[in-house]
Write a structure and sequence with these properties.
Growth Hormone, Chain: A, 406 residues, four-stranded mixed beta sheet, three-stranded antiparallel beta sheet, alpha+beta
Length: 406
């Protein structure tokens, strides 16, 4: 057994099977992919990587499985099910691009889809086959992608998965902000296997007494999005990064299939070689675009401006048209309207004190709990549409509103 010292969870024990996965080149790349992308330009401590987050998720998964085992809830599962789930916890982020989720926003393949090839072929697949079994790689990826029939699927991919608990706690610690306060112990002890009232199949749920701890997770996530993940300067840096990579892809300087193999600095170095630009210089020297316009989603009609998150070609066209109108270079004006509809979504079974199982979904429980409605309201208040521009560039508000209305 190997013990890794961790600033969040203190001691993380790793057995020989876990170490074989960790020692692969695919997993080691995660040491050099920052968990929070470009947030370190705002929060200097946010240089932690996907590597330690993956170790932490594996650790929480091991603790949760031990609690379920003590209560006899794993007795009917296949003998190797826990090993598959632990491997999925460790490998759930191996498909991430440099600087986290940003490139998925420009249409790059989702990191879970990228992970399929990495997990089901090559070195990882060989290790999984030798330590768990011949079909282990496919089972591991199915859990990561949310496509597994395993009752333990919800531990890795769900509205209350251990990945979320881990990254919220770690991100808050490393950013030095007080927003990630989650009652982790109560949440872990509240997780249970229940019969899903919708499907009738066994699934991960929560006991009713854990709902207060679930609220702590919900509010921590809201605060982290509002103050860290979607901080205006973080979004400015992200918009600049997206545009410079997009430009490089469209010019042929790099190919999309190359992206998932780079580390953060490796990609910037390649861009510096093949597609040098003012945007890249701005990121390296923290000369970020400034806010030229912003308004909350609550000030816009439903669906207004959603194309900024969903139609990348149109975004580039509008950005370039605005830049031309204002007499500045392409890339000097950038649109940003982040979208994550399931950011605070809830959809999980709850075992009531009397034994009945209810599903906490989009409609909540009238007169009892309305966390889903609250989640939607918090999401809408967090989402802000912005135009970023080089310093000194003025963008007329009326012109932006005209573009949003069309």
């Amino acid at each position: 057994m190997t013990i890794v010292r961790d600033p969040l969870w203190n001691n993380i024990p790793l057995d020989a099977d876990a170490m074989r996965l960790i020692d692969t080149a695919v997993f080691q790349r995660l040491r050099y992919v920052r968990q929070l992308g470009l947030a370190f330009l705002v929060y200097p401590g946010a240089t932690h990587s996907r590597f330690e987050h993956a170790l932490g998720t594996h650790h929480l998964t091991g603790r949760t499985l031990a609690l379920l085992r003590e209560r006899g809830e794993l007795a009917r599962l296949p003998e190797d099910e826990c090993a598959v789930v632990l491997a999925a916890a460790l490998l759930h982020d191996v498909g991430h691009y440099p600087f986290s989720h940003a490139l998925e926003e420009i249409g790059a393949l989702h990191h879970e889809a990228v992970a399929r090839t990495l997990i089901t072929g090559g070195e990882l697949a060989a290790v999984l086959a030798s330590t768990i079994g011949a079909n282990a790689a496919m089972r591991v990826h199915a859990i990561i992608a949310g496509e597994s029939a395993s009752p333990l699927q919800g531990l890795i991919s769900g509205s209350l998965d251990l990945d979320k608990i881990e990254y919220l706690k770690r991100d808050a610690l490393m950013c030095g902000v007080p927003y990630g306060e989650i009652d982790v112990e109560r949440l872990l002890h509240s997780l249970t296997i229940v019969e899903d009232p919708k499907s009738g199949a066994p699934a991960i749920g929560i006991v009713e007494k854990g709902l207060a701890a679930l609220e702590s997770l919900l509010f921590a996530k809201y605060q982290m999005y509002r103050n860290v993940y979607w901080h205006h300067a973080v979004r400015s840096a992200t918009a600049m990064y997206k545009r410079l990579v997009d430009d490089a892809l469209r010019s042929g300087a790099i190919e999309e299939h190359e992206l998932a193999g780079f580390t953060d600095e490796g990609l910037l170095h390649r861009l510096d070689e093949r597609a040098p630009s003012a945007l890249l210089d701005g990121l390296r020297n923290r000369h970020l675009h400034k806010r030229a316009f912003e308004c909350s989603s609550t000030e816009l009609d439903a669906g207004q401006g959603d194309w900024i998150a969903n139609d990348r070609a149109r975004v580039i066209e509008v950005e370039d048209a605005l830049a031309s109108e204002l007499g500045v270079e392409p890339g000097a004006v950038l649109l940003d309207y982040p979208e994550k509809p399931r950011m605070l979504g809830l959809d999980l079974p709850v075992r009531m004190r009397g034994g009945e199982v209810k599903r906490l979904g989009a409609k909540g429980w009238p007169a009892a709990i309305n966390l889903p409605l609250l989640s939607q309201e918090l999401y809408e208040s967090t989402r802000v549409m912005r135009v970023f521009a080089t310093e000194g560039t003025r963008v007329p508000r009326a012109r932006v509103m005209e573009l949003l209305a069309n």
